[in-house]
Amino acid sequence: MNPTIKDVAKKANVSIATVSRILNKQPGYSVKTKERVLEAIKELGYQPNAVARGLINKRTQTIGVLFPDVSSMFSSDLLKGIEDIAHERGHSVIVCHTTLSGQRTMKYLQLLNEKRVDGIIFTSEAMTEEYYNVLKEMNIPVVLLATQSYRYPLPYVKVDDKHAAYSAVSYLIQKGHHNIGMISGDINDQLAGLPRIEGYKQALLDRGIPFDEKKVVVSRGFRYEDGIAQLPKLLKQAKDLTAVFAASDEIAVGALSAAYELGIRVPEDLSIIGYDNLKIAEMAIPPLTTLAQPLYEMGKAGTEMLLDMLETGQAVESRVMPHSIVERRTVKPLS
Amino acid sequence: MNPTIKDVAKKANVSIATVSRILNKQPGYSVKTKERVLEAIKELGYQPNAVARGLINKRTQTIGVLFPDVSSMFSSDLLKGIEDIAHERGHSVIVCHTTLSGQRTMKYLQLLNEKRVDGIIFTSEAMTEEYYNVLKEMNIPVVLLATQSYRYPLPYVKVDDKHAAYSAVSYLIQKGHHNIGMISGDINDQLAGLPRIEGYKQALLDRGIPFDEKKVVVSRGFRYEDGIAQLPKLLKQAKDLTAVFAASDEIAVGALSAAYELGIRVPEDLSIIGYDNLKIAEMAIPPLTTLAQPLYEMGKAGTEMLLDMLETGQAVESRVMPHSIVERRTVKPLS
DNA sequence: CTGAAAGCGCTAACAG
DNA sequence: CTGTTAGCGCTTTCAG
After folding, report:
1. Nearest of A240, A190, A194 to residue A215 by alpha carbon
2. Other C-beta atoms within 10 Å of B117: how many?
3. Which of A97, A113, A285 sits opposite B83 (nearest CB)?
């Protein structure tokens, strides 16, 4: 069995209180005792029991992160940022894959409560009343990552989706494209679906290009398969498109594949711009021009916010992260 | 604050022992008290404190998983399998990104010990004496995932790398290729580096094709960038190759990109086979033929093993998982 | 500067 | 069937 603080105390001939003080760098002991204790610790290979500490401190130094079954590349960029900061600031992270069904999300929320995590990062999924209620009950800091809620006062970190989509489409227009299609994600998704369509629409309108609903096709998700399925559909219902804006990189790469099958050359015959800037954007053939979300930084920022709330007890401000265009080779300038 | 078992006991007019029994489904109470207690629990919204439980039971229902900074796609497939089984069997998972430096691995190991996790899954990285010693000290089950150790008696789950590489190259030969190159990962990697080269060599020799070291080029890692850099080098030092075996899908996709830049058509001018069967293999243009490792199943299997050890206290047997060839479109049969 | 003792929330004998 | 009690390993008053 692991040695306990008691063993250390006995070995060093002091009380456990003294050992505890030394462990926690509190004042109240002579240099000599400190040395003796430190030596006992080393000799025994003593490691404090975080469980016992958690019980009394009411802090577990652990946070929970909920991921829906979104593209794993998307999630893992976020996770990396989260884990880096959490570790740096002395916290562990418990990952929870909630998949689609809310049931599992509820189970996880309950679990995280039982484990007494210090805070929760809720990613990508929409916040529901049910979730919010239990979160409120738990009475711990929560931050929304790559999602947000109008209804509930939870701090978030995300990109401005509408604005980002606007930028992507504006970029296309600047490059001389006028006949631009869009492959959207789920239109019922108030967070990543609709706003991007609105950004697309707005960009068009602002340049005096009429919006034509035939030019946007909506899929159920944001996956590769959606891109594969939707590009042909889009091309059929909207003629002579010179460019398409895909609502995610996975969709864009799917579109790239579909185009390849159709014998349509990208970017010679058709320009494509994606959204996210995942690793696959870089790896695509040809490399995908895309609207970049700083996923890794978002993960870091969200975690910073969470831990700040934890430490200060204060609310923090939401952060809208900057997006940018990463120019690669799927958009051809039109003369 | 969260209500405690005491509150429940008071409200239901019973002792905390009775509540505890009911919570743990142990015998020893009437139906009536049970109902009363259950109602009190519901009314208070009581949730047992897993930290307190962990302290007394010496079980935290939590496992730790260590990932080096391997391709995130690779890790996240594993993680998904791990998390699914862990959750199904009532455990949470703490993720630890160890990056490259062993220092961080040691810190994590120590952390996981302090948190008193019930078991550890150690992925991809080579087991060192230093790690093994602390792991042994911790005295909890450990399983190696996508790695193995000759020196230390730790159960593992992985694919037979040499055999898998042998299969991949044999496949190429069956398709009529004789002049086959290889882009290897780090040759100093005893687990994923060398064995795959040996499999390549063996497959050649078994068909009477002489091995020529000019035909294999080794990179430092298994990343996309390595593929990009190494293909041109390989093509320069080995003429008239008709096919290449890449030691990972990322390398293969990098090779695909490099070929595209060079104006080499795949598979018309050059066939390529990858290794892993990540999602990107499917998404590549053209879709990548590859040697599939069942990553998700491996994650599941490893976790099953770990939890079995935990529950039974018995050692478990290592598992060599089946590999297979996923035929897509980067290998052209030679007449 | 140091120790004794209470108690975090829970489980597990041991009594009754 | 039910309650009392002693800890699990630690932090933290409160005395000295």
Report:
1. A240
2. 24
3. A97
CATH code that applies to domain B161-292 = 3.40.50.2300
Helical spans, DSSP H, in chain A: 5-12, 16-23, 31-44, 50-57, 72-88, 102-114, 129-138, 161-174, 194-206, 224-237, 249-262, 279-283, 295-312
CB–CB contacts below 8 A, A to B: 126
Q: Is B92 helix (H, G, I), strand (E, B) or coil?
A: strand
Chain B: give the shortest CA distance to residue A202, in Å.
Answer: 31
- Smallest CA-to-CA distance from A287 within A245, A227, A329, A253 is with A329
Enter the pTM of the model.
Answer: 0.93
Q: How far is A179 from chain B (nearest CA, A)?
A: 26
A161-292 matches A5-57 in CATH topology: no
> Using CA atoms, how far apart are residues B63 and B106, in angstroms rounded to an integer?
16
Structural domain boundaries of chain B? 5-57, 62-159+295-321, 161-292
Provide the token pair at A212.
């034509």
According to CATH, the superfamily of the domain at A5-57 is: lambda repressor-like DNA-binding domains (1.10.260.40)
Indicate the residue of B45, B137, B257 with minimum beta-carbon distance to A285.
Answer: B257
Dig out the tokens for B188 from the structure: 């100093």
Q: Which CATH class is domain B62-159+295-321?
A: alpha beta
Q: Which residues of A227-256 are buried (b: 16+ CB within 10 A; e: fewer)?
A: bbbbbbebbeebeebbbbbbbbbbbbbbbb
For strands B289-292 and B324-326, give the pairing: antiparallel
Phi and psi, residue A312, nearest 5°: -95, -20
CB B302 within 8 A of CB B63: no
Q: Kindly state the helix (H) or strand (E) to which residue A92 belongs, with its residue range.
A: strand A92-97
A140, two tokens: 């711990």
* Per-residue pLDDT of chain B in tens (335 residues, 90 and over written 9): 789 999 998 888 898 999 999 988 888 788 888 888 899 899 999 999 999 999 999 999 999 999 997 668 899 999 999 999 999 999 999 999 998 767 789 999 999 999 999 999 999 888 999 999 999 999 999 999 999 999 999 999 999 999 999 999 999 999 999 999 999 998 888 888 899 999 999 999 999 999 999 999 999 889 999 999 999 999 999 989 999 999 999 999 999 999 999 999 999 999 999 999 999 999 999 999 999 999 999 999 999 999 999 999 999 999 999 999 999 999 999 97
- Angstrom distance (rounded) from CA B176 to CA B174: 5
A92:B113 CB<8 A: no
Q: In angstroms, what CA-CA distances link B145 with A285, B139, B179?
A: 32, 18, 34
